[in-house]
Amino acid sequence: MRLFIGINLPANVKQAVFDELPEVKGNRLYQGTWVDPKLWHLTVLFLGEVDDASLPKIIDIIKTTAKQIPHFGLSVGGYIGIPDHAPYRILARSIGADKWFNVLQQRLKLAFKASGISGDGKNPHLTLVRVKLPFSLLPKFDNEAKSLTVNQIVLWQSILGGKGPVYRPLKAFKLAPEATNNKFRPNVAICILNPKNEVLLIKHREHVYNAWQFPQAGVQKNETIPDTVKRELKEELGLESCKLILVKENIYKYKWPKRLQIEGTDPEKRSYVGQEQSLAIVRVKEIRPKLSPDPREAESTEWVSASGLLEALHPLRRTVGRLAVVELEKMKVV
């Protein structure tokens, strides 16, 4: 089946655009195959031909992504030609979109790519007519833009036929009622001490050379910080025997780079703008406890002296490191 993800225009916007067409349609420059207003839509991502077996996966990707995107605004503006320069083959209306359209398009494209499905996303526009002969002049447009709020996206099937395409809506997906990207993900940084008062640092597999940091984990829904610490140390390092000696909640907040907010590889992080960290300090009984680092998380580990902790940490991790040192000094570890 031939699929695309799109935005259906409300009837009042279609009518307003339609009411401005008679003069344009009468111009001999724009003779060609006019799109039926009933089929007017904005394409977010064109998926092309996919096999029927992929449909459940496609629906799941769109559903997950839609939950991360708030309602956003669009406006239908003046006439444009396609391609980007004359001579043009298509007459269309320009679409002004806020940042969330681009975020939606990019996240869908990345999610489908990770699942082995290619998606083609272009700048939003409303196609009016595919002309018989190329043209260079665009119709004049002095009217105000038509604005609308987008609160859902639709998966469509495009059925090609002798009388033109037929678009069949397969499923609609509601967007989030409000932006979640102004929120910070709850996270805990874990300072692990051994009997020699050395601190365990890890280097994440996705980070640059010598980007040492504390083990850390997102606090999941209905999970306490001690629960998170226990789960993370077991999953990431294979540590099951340790004593939690201190928790300082919500002591540090930071934003991720904008690229990571949009393209982040971890779906759990995409609904947030950054992280709000708590600090946990734990002790292990052995000087060198047996570790089983998860290769998907910790590429390598290293024990450093508490006095050399700040120097060992990556500069971006030193703020939370300083907060840890303050607590270690109170404990007379440093």
Could you walk me through the main structural features you see in this protein, from its secondary elements to its overall organization?
- The chain is an alpha+beta fold.
- It has two domains: 2-174, Cyclic Phosphodiesterase, Chain: A, CATH 3.90.1140.10; 184-330, Nucleoside Triphosphate Pyrophosphohydrolase (Alpha-Beta Complex), CATH 3.90.79.
- 23% of the residues lie in helices and 38% in strands.
- The chain is built from eight helices and 16 strands.
- The protein has helices spanning 11-19, 22-25, 55-66, 99-114, 225-237, 258-263, 309-312, 318-330; strands at residues 2-8, 32-34, 41-49, 72-82, 88-97, 125-135, 146-150, 152-159, 166-174, 184-193, 198-204, 212-213, 216-218, 243-255, 274-283, 298-305.
- It has a five-stranded antiparallel sheet, with helices on both faces. A four-stranded antiparallel sheet has the order 3-1-8-9.
- A hairpin with a 7-residue loop joins strand 11 (198-204) and strand 12.
- Helix 3 (55-66) packs antiparallel against helix 4 (99-114).
- It is elongated.
- The model has no long low-confidence stretch (mean pLDDT 89).
